[in-house]
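On to my pick:
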Amino acid sequence: MPRNRKSNSNGTALATVEPPALPTISRSEANKLLKQRAQDLYHEARAEREERIRQFETEFGRADRIDHTLLRDLQHLQTRFAAIAARQFKYAADNHEPKVSKFTKQLGEIIGELSSHLATERALELFAPVEERDFVGAGGTIGRKGLDDSILASYNVIDDPLGPKNVTPTPIYQDADEVCLHGDVEPYEGDPSRGACAECGEEFDLATAGNTEDT
């Protein structure tokens, strides 16, 4: 029985459907796709940041400046607390509400400190800059935030003719924010079958005119 056929429980031969072959692209073409994807991710991140700011300001008001609206809101709140404390002082014998006068300042300091801390953390995250270099990198690199190699899942990536063998993006150095694509690997003068990346120095075997058919 051929390898591409199976038999079911009734003995009937079933053809095995092979998945279509992936289109083949060179490593340099793959690097271009990775670079373009990084650029797209950068613009998406900027758009998402602007949308978060828009939603925040729709709910809480403008955050790009401390204006009279914010000052007026705080003054209204302060006046309301003061009025409650005054009423309690004048009509102390007629109600059983918790007295707020002696706690107003203490609570204000506690809430103010905690609110300031939480608001600052949120603001730092909200307005954290979206840097192009974090996505696109520079030269032959891509920022860690921009590296999305899933875009190559639908391709069969092969080595470039007369280029480095088995190249995959790697960090420029440990814990680096940039990933090198190794797009420029220069052969050694004394051994053209070996070379080093001009960007990060990583060494690779090279495909040469004499061994391209064997790779």
Observations:
- Residues 28 and 109 are 60 Å apart (CA to CA).
- Strands lie at 5-7, 13-15, 24-26, 141-143, 156-158, 170-171, 178-180, 185-187, 194-197, 203-205.
